[in-house]
Design a protein that fits this description.
- The radius of gyration is 18 Å and the shape is globular.
- The chain contains 11 helices and no strands.
- It has 274 residues and is mainly α.
- The longest helix is centred in the last third of the chain and has 33 residues, at 240-272.
């Protein structure tokens, strides 16, 4: 039996499958270190002839759930993140992702992408010009104020994940560093727990609609788990400076990807209508 027929995608070849598995491994690594693995995994899935965007999104989320679960457990065992902040933030983020998905059915994501690009440019400059940012944990809020700030951040970023998605982990990391005052290592550890909740929340919407390609998603999940385990171990051993460097690289790639989307979806049609 051909691999495509076995997986329910008649035109899928071994070559494309190997490419997607490699992308899933790399995505797991990137996600574990600083978030943004969807930049690799989702475009790779869209290379499959005949796959719908919804199937690609749903299958991407299935693999990502396993990857983020793996890195969450690894970080928890070795970095000991404060779950009193991470778990409530994750619960609120899950609700936010539902809200974002609901808005996405009414308003196109293209309407929000220009704002996201500007925000990412500000994040990149802010991080690059402050080399000591995230080097050590210096909490900016305490007590109830700390948890309120964390919950508000989880709600907004969860909403973004449901609405658009790419770079959710990256936004979580920079928010935990710049708003709450964690170092990059602790921010990455907490971001994985929150991102696990937002991925799971999206899956709860996709599964009833039959959008998940389970066999393909299972294969990618294995690759994602391997990449996530390696990435989280490297991040823990190399520390905040290493995570900061990878963070800046991922932010630049996010700006490039979303910038191209803004041009194709907003600027080019406007110029064509002149």
């Amino acid at each position: 039996m051909e691999i495509g027929a076995f997986l329910g995608l008649e035109q899928l070849t071994w070559g494309v499958l190997i490419l997607i598995v490699v992308a899933a491994f790399a995505a797991g690594w990137v996600d574990a270190v600083v978030g943004g693995g969807g930049l690799l995994q989702l475009p790779a899935l869209l290379l499959i002839p005949g796959i719908s965007p919804v199937q690609a999104l749903a299958t991407n989320k299935l693999a990502s759930v396993f990857g983020t679960a793996t890195s969450s457990v690894t970080y928890y065992r070795r970095a000991k993140p404060d779950i009193r902040t991470a778990l409530p933030m994750a619960g609120i983020a899950l609700l936010g992702s539902f809200g974002g998905a609901a808005v996405a059915t009414v308003l196109p994501a293209a309407a929000f992408k220009p704002i996201i690009v500007v925000a990412l440019l500000a994040v990149a400059l802010f991080t690059a010009l402050r080399p000591q940012l995230g080097a050590a944990t210096m909490l900016r809020f305490h007590g109830h104020k700390h948890h309120i700030a964390a919950g508000a951040a989880g709600l907004v970023i969860g909403f973004y994940d449901g609405l658009i998605g790419p770079g959710t982990g990256t936004f979580l990391v920079i928010t935990l560093v710049s708003l709450l005052g964690y170092d990059f290592l602790q921010a990455s550890a907490k971001a994985k727990i929150v991102n696990l909740a937002t991925n799971f929340g999206a899956l709860l919407l996709f599964i009833p609609h039959g959008a998940v390609l389970w066999l393909l998603g299972g294969i990618l999940a294995v690759a994602n788990i391997a990449g996530s385990y390696l990435g989280s171990r490297m991040a823990i051993s190399r520390g905040s400076r290493f995570i900061r460097i990878v963070f800046l690289i991922v932010v630049v790639l996010l700006i490039g990807k979303l910038g191209v989307d803004v041009w194709n979806e907003n600027v080019a049609p406007a110029l064509a209508s002149l």
